[in-house]
Amino acid sequence: MRFIEAAPTFAVEVRSENDYGDAAELEFAAKRADYFLAGTPVVWDVDTVNERIHVYRAPQPTQPVVYQRGETAEAEPVVPGWRVAVDWIFS
Question: Total structural domains in the chain?
Answer without folding.
Answer: 1
